[in-house]
Amino acid sequence: MNDNAWYDLFIDALHKKFPKKTQLTKSLKNLLEIEREAVYRRLRKEVFFSAHEIVKIASTWGISLDEISQINSDQFAFQMKQMNYINPSEKEVNFLQTVIKGIRALQNAPDTEFMDICNKLPRQILAGFPYLNQFYLFKANYQYSSAKEVVPFSKCAISDKKRLLTDEYYQAIKCVPNSNFILDTLLFDFLVNDIRYFFSILLITQEEKELIKKDLHKVIDYFFEIATCGCYPETQNKVNLYISELNVDTNYSYTVSPEAKICFVHVFEKLEIYTFNSEMIVNFMSWMQLKKRTSIKISEVDERSRVEFFTKQRQIIESL
Q: How far is it, in rounded angstroms, from Cα 39 to Cα 256?
């Protein structure tokens, strides 16, 4: 493939990412920190994007240079975006607002599918329960913070700005037309054990433990409602809930819609590595769908298994 043909395909990829010219121009201007006229010259091919600019665009917007160049390297590049979830910067706030806006747009795409296989509470649900959300932030900070001073649960509260974003995310995620969750059968055992540990080393007080426990009961009640009706009660959008018979080693997820396809491996409690590579996404979808073979569906069907599972989880929580 000659250079001009490759560049044409790259420009086409930009227009597919942002079909409206004004939106593409503004996005490139902000991303590359160049003047509007400089963007126009590049899009008209009077001036070529530099190698540095191309790499920055591709990595930020999830454009596969291998696919554009029609080179099969048999390698799949994953990216990770670090995020301060306790007190995000203005740039991080803007990024989170863009994510939320993108999720809300999915309600207009009925074929959109989200799937999460998890050994800890999925972020989509966790966002609606402030003490549980704070606990996961506290745990991540305790395990991965480079600070020498240990920060107790009470001092790990998120900012008001982040709390508002979390609430917006919790409402937006229910706009997704089709969602699937496969939960590790020991998920609540793991979570209760973690809470018990931090309580034992005096980083969580008795009062805080009771508040977390109350949130745990609420999240079980919410899961039970979802499993019974097979949808988010607020939006009626479809939700399938499964329980894995085999242990899950971490959280994996994918989102597929006509406009975007992305898969994640969730790491370090609150972060994730992700890729937009189409071949890897196909693999992810296949692997994750196969997980259903060793899972029991408890939403809408198999009422006995559903009642038994949630009764057991309530007993585990009550033991805290």
A: 30
